């Protein structure tokens, strides 16, 4: 059940409403700085009090305790290292959070987000989970966005003008775990790309080719491939039509040993790419040789038993 705390004071917030920011690591400090630049009275707190100094110089109000910080504003944003840290910090302050909106921008899993939402609802706290799709230097600038989800969309609507000082906002669903699910899925795509780039630089570098000389070719190639691959694979998955006239799984299975051999001959580890061989072998054994790479997604779901949001959340927690 949504927390019933969209009180009159929150429904009529001033244009530059006060905010509390808990956690002043690299990202938390960037978030607080963006709020201050947008003119929001901002109270900050961190376990290491010295980290408040640069923000106080920008106009922030330091809080001596987490309790003082929570009581300073109707909107409390928390950005810590883990969701365990969030629970440890906020559980003693539940009574002081009652009637306020808590926005959790700490990276976590869908299951953790749902658990925090349940805890918040039980204490009369409006809970919004968020996933930051940016590095600290992008906060408050074009190109950054933050995903939000939760059962209390009214609280999100109330505080959206304030949240937009941080980055563009994207509401992704009424399940508190939706933002974390989207966040981890997007980051998965990024890390997959990073692993390919890392491996490419290792291989080309084994021949003494400077990374700077290779970078323009690699960037052009990766951009060209992802431009077609991402929407093309989405269409194949949603339609269930995996046949391809581009590059079949049979062709990829036959080609992959060349990559692994080349890595070995160049003295480059194949630990990032070796698992792909097993997945391709399974795809062929199950009769998918003529299908495109999109078929591998269905094999991953089969392997993990993933078929619902709840399953996806559980898989994230285990993985």
The helix/strand series, from N terminus to C terminus, equals HEHEHEHEHHEHEEHEHHHHHH
Relative helix content: 40-55%
Overall radius of gyration: 23 Å
Q: From the 3D coordinates, which CATH architecture of the largest domain would you assign? A: 3-Layer(aba) Sandwich
Structural class: alpha/beta
Number of strands: 8
Provide the number of structural domains.
2
- Quote the distance from N terminus to C terminus: 29 Å
Q: State the CATH class of the largest domain.
A: Alpha Beta
Main sheet? 8 strands, mixed
Uncertain spans: 1-13, 306-319
Number of helices: 14
Q: Could you state the CATH homologous superfamily of the largest domain?
A: NAD(P)-binding Rossmann-like Domain
Strand content: 5-15%
Strand order of the largest sheet: 3-2-1-4-5-6-7-8
Gross morphology: elongated
Compute the average pLDDT. Answer: 91
Q: Within the CATH hierarchy, at the fold level, what is the topology of the largest domain?
A: Rossmann fold
Quick recap of the structure?
The protein is 53% helix and 12% strand. By secondary structure, it is an alpha/beta fold. The protein is elongated, with a radius of gyration of 23 Å.
Detailed description of the structure:
The protein has two domains: 8-173, 3-Layer(aba) Sandwich (Rossmann fold), CATH 3.40.50.720; 206-318, N-(1-d-carboxylethyl)-l-norvaline Dehydrogenase, domain 2. Helices cover 53% and strands 12% of the residues. The protein is built from 14 helices and eight strands. Helix 8 links the parallel strand 7 (145-149) and strand 8 (168-173). Helix 9 packs across helix 10 (211-239) and helix 12 packs across helix 13 (295-304). The longest helix has 29 residues, at 211-239. It starts with 7 loop residues before the first helix and ends with a helix.
